């Protein structure tokens, strides 16, 4: 059996179109959605991500402001900028690209963002709201994964076993909570898990978010499973690959996301969706 591809790029186009319609409706009433993106330092991967986010805003009618600062920026200066953006009525979303230089306390910086403008969904208020099942801004990558499952008709996950490999605050933990909320039985695996394959082979839905190139092999996947690959790893030859051994696993899985062109484009689409939703809430 060869898995069917989940075309994240095509699904992201669909969502971007819907976001553009909502952004246009807001703009018509004089409330164009606005996103501020802050990049500190010169991490090359972050520079690419940030550029893509700003470009996507322009393509969907969202006003964006990119603020770049040298790695030497002090924490007080960064917190002051965030306070100013919190108070700016033209800005509905604030994103501080991670990782931050080591001298900056990332959690303190994130907590400085007004929760209603935290379009990454990383603020403890939004993380807590997700935990207790209240409406909140949800982290973009897990949200994009859920939209992919919905696209496959998997909205009610009762009776399905989801396994998340990775326990980060950005992906693993919120992903597990969203799957749980949708009714799945959820296992979270991580670097301390013994016999990882024993767990992953139970998965009807397998989410790989570990940052290790091709670590999920065909022998770790249940035949027919939905495999969502969050990893974006650069190989020594410069090519990108996921956390899943795509060529091998596609012979076993039922559905699989490619890298690139899978989860990545959905992450950006969900950032746009969160921004337009934050703008709608600010106006209602
Ligand atoms: N670094 C890697 N992924 C992300 C993300 O989704 N948001 C931010 N702000 N930084 C990141």
Automatic annotation (TrEMBL):
Keyword Metal-binding belongs to the record: no
Keyword Hydrolase appears in the UniProt entry: yes
Pathway per the UniProt entry: One-carbon metabolism; tetrahydrofolate interconversion
EC number: 1.5.1.5, 3.5.4.9
Positions with a binding annotation for NADP(+): 166-168, 232
CDD domains: NAD_bind_m-THF_DH_Cyclohyd
InterPro entries (UniProt xref): Aminoacid_DH-like_N_sf, NAD(P)-bd_dom_sf, THF_DH/CycHdrlase, THF_DH/CycHdrlase_cat_dom, THF_DH/CycHdrlase_CS, THF_DH/CycHdrlase_NAD-bd_dom
Residue ranges constituting the Tetrahydrofolate dehydrogenase/cyclohydrolase NAD(P)-binding domain according to the UniProt record: 139-282
Reaction(s) this enzyme catalyzes, per UniProt: (6R)-5,10-methenyltetrahydrofolate + H2O = (6R)-10-formyltetrahydrofolate + H(+); (6R)-5,10-methylene-5,6,7,8-tetrahydrofolate + NADP(+) = (6R)-5,10-methenyltetrahydrofolate + NADPH
Domain of life per record: Bacteria
GO cellular component terms attached to this protein's record: cytosol
Role this protein plays: Catalyzes the oxidation of 5,10-methylenetetrahydrofolate to 5,10-methenyltetrahydrofolate and then the hydrolysis of 5,10-methenyltetrahydrofolate to 10-formyltetrahydrofolate.
Quaternary structure and interacting proteins, as annotated: Homodimer.
UniProt xrefs under PANTHER family: C-1-TETRAHYDROFOLATE SYNTHASE, CYTOPLASMIC (PTHR48099:SF5), C-1-TETRAHYDROFOLATE SYNTHASE, CYTOPLASMIC-RELATED (PTHR48099)
Protein name from the UniProt record: Bifunctional protein FolD
Organism field: Tepidimonas alkaliphilus
